[in-house]
Amino acid sequence: MSDQLERFDVIVAGAGPAGMSAAYLLAKEGLNVIVVERGDFPGSKNVMGGVLYRQPTEQIIPGFWREAPLERHVVETQAWVLTEKAAFKAAHRHEAFAQEPYNSFTVLRARFDKWMAQQVRAAGALIVPETVVEEPIMEGDKVVGVRTGRPDGDLYADVVIAADGVNSLLAQKAGLRKKEIPKNEAALAVKEVIALPREVIEDRFQVSGDQGVTIELYAEATWGMVGTGFIYTNKDSLSVGCGVLISELVERGITPNDLLEHMKAHPAVAPLLEGGETREYLAHLIPEGGLYGMPKLSTHGMLVVGDAAMLVNSMHREGSNLAMTSGKFAAQAVLRAKEWNDFSAESLSYYDQLIRDSFIYKDLYKYRNMSRFFETHPEFFSLYPDLLNEACREMLTVDGVSKRAKQRKIFWDALRKRMPWRMALDFYGAWRSIA
Amino acid sequence: MKKLTLEQKLFLNGFRPDQESHLRIIDQEKCKQCELRQCTYVCPVNTYRWENGQITVFFEGCLECGCCRIACQDCQNLEWRYPRGGYGVNYRTG
Q: What residues of B are in the A interface, CB distance below 8 Å?
């Protein structure tokens, strides 16, 4: 890098959805922006389950869905509660989701992010791949740049946007995250992309054209651990994976790949994957700390966005939208700071305010106790799914026993396993934690 | 569908391994005392293996998720960093 390139208005560390959203909007406003990405190309290190939401993405790039490499638009959302041999399935499909401009899409991040990077470049930002951001360059408590892994790779700017993902070394080294992420505040997700012919996917999931389906799977899908499994339809592949809290893996002594194979072998899951061929095996950490896990979001010369700021709503499997929206807010805060030529912590705290006034904070606040609740109530991942599926089995089995007798049996079976006042408390607590 | 072993799955991924490991055990003695050795089972690609009384790090198949870093935080015995720019896993789908 030559000398005149070393000073920028903004350095964005990490070319994921949060960082690229900020970079795109800032470059469009004429700022001198550099995006530093450790992968060969933006997307080559990026993993998510695979759902991208239209509305927040259009806040960055209007009309993106007409051009971007998307997989399918989601018309049906399913939730399955699994036990070892059974599945209770709920599904919702709405014709509105089949109409343009659509609500959400399945995507493969390596392809989508590569496309988004092209838009960022076209907007005027410089993207430097194959470069790791190692630490912030500090002057006192001010962030003034970043040290990269390249020789003579120090970069300076008015503002650094830390979009370096869940493992954010920048947030940590700049002192915005005081401690390591606890084991119960991060989930490890593993995923396979499994190739299947288009027609097979359309037949199996009852969709046509580019319509798609998402399925979230609970309970036995994660061997009763706090977490979820998922199956998302792509054009000619499925994204199949599961994620559980690291604390749960540690406690149960379970290996992630075994967990995924266990889910894939479930009698309700296996038929959907039949004949498929695994194309890639991926892993990623998902920040689950929610509101309480959030680091400080800004300091003098630095803002933290996306996964680096723990912005994930796991209840609704939303992450990319929080990431992009936080990128947008970061861009707004930087533009305001630029206007006043004031990059102090106080000036940049406008970003915190934007987050706090938005759905991001409100949703994370709403679900702030959810993860902790389910962690301390494993019944929701084993006992209750079992009672539900066995109750269904009992009522559906025709064997000469009266329905009233069956109801009584279901009732007493449940009571034997959990006292009614405990159940009442469990469900009240669950409701409280998500209401 | 056909069940693949972990090794077979890793053959499907694109990797450009560096010469040297980006993951380093700071003190093998600590690992000998470590009760759970969580790194040997929470890693999605079995990077850390307990062999001949010490941890061997098979960094070549690392997916760079950071799970080991969180698992080893009680002992603080892992020097964790990303591979150098351009090295490591290269996802095609993501």
A: 1-4, 6, 9-10, 12-13, 16, 36, 38, 41-46, 63-67, 69-71, 73, 81-86, 88-94
For the stretch B42-73, pLDDT in tens is 999 999 999 999 999 999 999 999 999 999 99
Question: Which residues have a Cβ under 8 Å from the Cβ of A40 and sit 6 or more positions away?
Answer: A129, A130, B16, B86, B90
How do residues A107-150 score in pLDDT, each as one tens digit? 999 999 999 999 999 999 999 999 999 999 999 999 999 999 99
- Relative to beta strand A211-219, strand A73-82 is parallel
**Separation CA A145–CA A5 (nearest Å):** 13
Question: Which class does domain B16-84 fall in?
Answer: alpha beta
Chain A residues closer than 8 Å to B93 by CB? 108-111, 193, 237, 279-280, 282
Contacts of A92 (CB under 8 A, 6+ apart): A76, A77, A78
Task: Using an 8 Å CB-CB cutoff, list chain A residues near B9.
Answer: 192, 257, 278, 281
Q: Which CATH number fits domain A3-70+108-179+292-357: 3.40.50.12500, 3.20.20.140, 3.40.50.2300, 3.50.50.60?
A: 3.50.50.60
